[in-house]
C-alpha cells in the first residue's frame, strides 16, 4: 500500500519499532506528571541516534540522515503514535540552517545539533504577536560589533531542554531598520530569564514546558545573526513547510493508534451481551475515522512526494498547509470519537484516547492555526488557480 520502496519500508519499520518500545512507558509517565528520569530520557535519545532516526531531516554533508521528505514523514508518523512527548527524542534540528549558516555557525550549531549534542528552541511568538508575526515588538539594535536584543517571548517550547534559542526581533537602525532579523542566542546568557511557566493542556514534563521568556539587553556578537541583514526571512518559509508537513505526519500516527485501539476495544467490550462493535452507531465512528485517516495519509504522502520531485515552491507551500489543516482537524475528530467509543474509560488518563484528546488539540493551533492555513490555501488558489494546487 502507498507504493513505498523497500528502503522506505525499512526506515518506517525502524521508527515503528522505537515507538513500540516507548508506548508501554506512557501511562507511568502520565501518572508521574509527565516526568521521566533524566538518565532514561538520555537512554531514549541514544537509542534514537543508534536507530538512525535522529536528525533524519538534516543533510548528510553536516552529519544528518539525508532522508527524503517522504521518509521523514514516515519517521514522524511513528513519533506521533506515542503520547507524553516520549518520542520527541527523534528530533528534527533546523534543516534550513545549513544553507544560510556561516562556517562558524556550521561548526558551533549545525553539526553538534545533527549529532544530538545541542538542542534548540524558538523564541518568536509574543503576547501581541502570534498569527501575525509582523506584529512582534522585540528589537535588535546594532552596537559596535554586537547586537543588543530585547523582547518578551511566549510559549517557548522546550526552553528548559535547549542550549540555544532562535530569537526573532526587528532591527532598530541602519539600512534595514524595521525589518525582521533572527539570532542564535546561547543558553543560558546574561539577560535571558524565565518570566513564568504557565501550565498547559498536555502533560509533557519539565523538559518540554513552554515558558514566557524575557530577553533584556542581551548582547550577542554580530556573528550570531542568521543570514544577512535585509537578507529576508526566506528560510522561514522553508521551515514552515517542513514543520507543517511534520505536524501532519504526527497526526497520522496518532490517528492510526487511536483507530487501532478503538477497534480492538469495540470488539472486546461487551454491552447488553454483544460487542459494541456490532452497534451501528459505534461502527460509524470506526468507519469515519479510518476513512479520514486514509484520506489524510494519502494527502500527506503525496505532498511529501511532490517535494521530493521538486514541485514548485508555492505549490509545496499550499499543499503543506492543506496536509497540516486536514490531518490536524482529522486527528482531533478521531480523538473525540475514540473517547466516545471508550466510554468512561476514554475520560481516564490511563487511556491513550484521553491523552491524545488533550495532546492533539494544539496541532490545530501551533505552526499556524487552521484558520491561517485556510487563508494561505485560499490566497494561493486565487493567485495560481486551484487546478495547480490539487
Ligand atoms: C503549546 C504551544 C507551543 C508553542 N510553541 C511555540 C514556540 O516554541 N515558539 C514560538 O515562537 N511560538 C510557539 N507557540 C505559539 C503558536 O505558534 C501561536 O500560539 C500560534 O501561531 C497562534 O498565535 P496566537 O496564540 O497569538 O493566536 P492569535 O494570532 O491571537 O489568534 C487567535 C485566533 O484568531 C484567529 N486568527 C488570527 N489571524 C487570523 C486570520 N488572518 N484569519 C482568520 N483567523 C485568524 C486564529 O486562528 C485564532 O483562532 C506555541 C503555542 C502553543 C499553544
Written account of the structure:
With 390 residues, the protein is α+β, with helices and mostly antiparallel strands. It folds into three domains: 6-115, Acyl-CoA dehydrogenase/oxidase, N-terminal domain (Butyryl-Coa Dehydrogenase, subunit A, domain 1, Orthogonal Bundle); 120-226, Butyryl-CoA Dehydrogenase, subunit A, domain 2, CATH 2.40.110; 234-388, Butyryl-CoA Dehydrogenase, subunit A, domain 3, CATH 1.20.140. It is 46% helix and 14% strand. The chain contains eleven helices and ten strands. A hairpin with a 2-residue loop joins strand 2 (139-143) and strand 3 (146-153). The longest helix is centred in the middle third of the chain and has 35 residues, at 234-268. Bound molecules: flavin-adenine dinucleotide. Flavin-adenine dinucleotide (FAD) binds at residues 121-122, 124-125, 130-131, 155-157, 200, 210, 362, 365-366, 368-369, 371-372, 375.
